[in-house]
Amino acid sequence: MIRFPILTLRTAVMLPFTLVLLLTVGVIAIAQHNSYERMLAEVSNKLLSSYTKNISNDLNLFLGDPFKTNKTLADSIQRHRLYQPPTLTVLEGYLFDAISSLYISQKQINTIAFASEEKFFVGYRKEKNQQYSLLLKDQRTANDLYIFDGNSYHHPTSHKIKNYNPVERPWYRPFAQKRQAGWSDVYTNMDENQTLTISAASPVMQNNRLIGVTVTDINLSHINKFLANEARSTTGTTYILDDKGLLIATSVNQKVVSNTFKRLPPSESASSVVAASGQYIQDRQLNTLSRSTVFSFSHNNTRYFSRITPYQDEYNLNWSIVVTTAETDLLGQLPQQQMMGLIAALILGGGGLLIGLSVLGRITRPITDIAEASKKLTESNWDIPVREGISLKETQQLVSSIKSMSHRLQQSFTSLRKHVLFDNLTGLLSQQGLVDSTSKLRSGTDAGLVLIGLKSFRNINDSLGHINGDQLLVQIATRFEQVMSNHIQLSRLSRDEFALFSQQSFTTEQIEQLAKRALEIFHRPFVIDGIDVMLRARAGIVNGALPESGINGWLRNASLALSEAKQHEHPLHCHYQPSMMTTSIEQTRLTADLKRAIDNHEFEVYYQPIIDLHHNKACGAEALVRWHSPTRGLVPPNDFIPLAEDSGMIIEIGHQILHQACMQTYDQIQKGHWPTDFLLHVNLSVCQLLQTGFLAQLETVLAETKLPAKNLTLEVTESRLVTQPLLTTQILKEIQSLGIHIAIDDFGTGYSSLAYLNQLPFNSLKIDRSFINQMMVTENYSAIVTAVISIAHNFQADTVAEGVETAEQATKLKQLGCRYAQGFYYAQPKPMSEWSTETVNKSGKTHQLAEYQA
Question: What's the whole-model pTM score?
Answer without folding.
Answer: 0.44
